[in-house]
Amino acid sequence: MIRATRILRRDALSGGEIVDRVVLDHGDRHRRRVAMRGSGGLDFLLDLPEPAVLEDGDALVLEDGRLVWVEAASERLLEIRAPSEHALKRLIWHIGNRHIPAEIGADAVWIADDHVLAEMVRGLGGTVEPVIRPFRPEGGAYAGGSAQAHAHGGHHHHHVAD
Predict the structure, then answer these.
(1) Distance from C-alpha of 32 to C-alpha of 8, rounded to nearest angstrom
(2) Which stretch is the leader sequence (predicted)?
(3) What's the rounded Cα separation, in Å, for the pair 37 and 112?
(4) With contact defined as beta carbons under 8 Å apart, do 96 and 102 qualify?
(5) Backbone torsions φ then ψ of 76, nearest 5 degrees
């Protein structure tokens, strides 16, 4: 089976022959070694030197130089909003305290569908809306329990500063 041994980041993508694509949810985008099958039926072995987070729009480089495009699957998420920036920061703090993957935007936070957290957010005065969209959580190091959150250039990490 042909191996994919490295990741070509979205911002470094220039040309190259894209022969297939893999659609992965956020749990499957944190991997080192796993057999994969592209949407077009190409079987290959992802075999990276170390675990890495595959981002939407990245490509996996096969041993023969061909590329397999990575697409983030749409997932059921909860979109959390708050009446003020301060209220949103409080919500982010409470969510962060639970050590669950969260994607932090300028005026909203997205988490995996979880009715217990939805109730907590409403109790704190936030709004919760179910949405279907790709999930790009901060760090991405939750899957597989690895504590190595590699910060890759070009991605904006929002730090809550009070």
Answers:
(1) 15
(2) none
(3) 25
(4) yes
(5) -80, 115
Q: What 3-state class would DSSP assign to 122?
A: helix
In terms of C-beta density within 10 A (0-12 exposed, 13-18 middle, 19 or more buried), how is residue 1 classed?
Answer: exposed
Q: Give the amino acid at 118.
A: A
Provide the pLDDT for residue 14: 75
Partners of 127 in beta bridges: 81
Angstrom distances, CA of residue 39 to CA of 19, 36, 42, 100: 10, 10, 7, 29
Task: Write down the pTM of the prediction.
Answer: 0.70
The structural domains of the chain, ordered by start, are 3-72 (2.60.260.20), 74-145 (3.30.70.790)
101-138 pLDDT, tens digit each: 999 999 999 999 999 999 999 999 999 999 999 998 88
